[in-house]
Amino acid sequence: MNVFLLGKGVECEDIDDERFVVTKEIMAFLDAGGRTYSCSSCMRLRAKGEAQACALSKMSDLYNIIAESDKVITFQVRGTFPRAHLLRRVKSRMANASHRRKAISRKSQLPGYA
Q1: Which residue among 13, 15, 55, 107 is buried most deeply as judged by most CB within 10 Å?
Q2: Element containing residue 77 per DSSP (H, E)
Q3: pTM to 2 decimal places
């Protein structure tokens, strides 16, 4: 089983309290053979390094996890999506990010652009 954390989910190791020891539960999940991943962009936005329990990952990793999975469960504010829809969304985000990087790269090559 794979868990890919996005947004505030990457802060999972910071929310331990006496009632909910999240880090202990994550470690139990890992010991049982689970794998956890965290969005590297989400971690960077929060000025966090690689978490002890979650490897830094990219949207392409999320895409591959979804593509290789028999079932996908999502937990988010807006609701859940069928697997095919989720694959399209992730692929679209990957394409948009690539397009933005290329545009920035072209802009930086213009004379007088710093």
Answers
A1: 13
A2: none
A3: 0.62
